[in-house]
Amino acid sequence: MNRPSPMKTIGILGGMSDKATMEYYKFINNAINARLGGWEIGETLIQGVNFGNIEYYVRNDEWEEARVYLEQKAKLLEAGGADLIVCVSNTMHRVLDRMDQIVSIPFIPITTPTAEAIVRKGLKKVALLGTQPVMKAQYIKQAYAKYGIDIVVPSPEQQHHIDRIIFDELVKGLTPDTSKQYYLDVCKELASLGAQGVILGCTEIFLLINQADLPDMHVFNTTELHCNAAVDMALTLP
Question: For the residues 124-138, what does the mean pLDDT come to?
Answer without folding.
Answer: 96
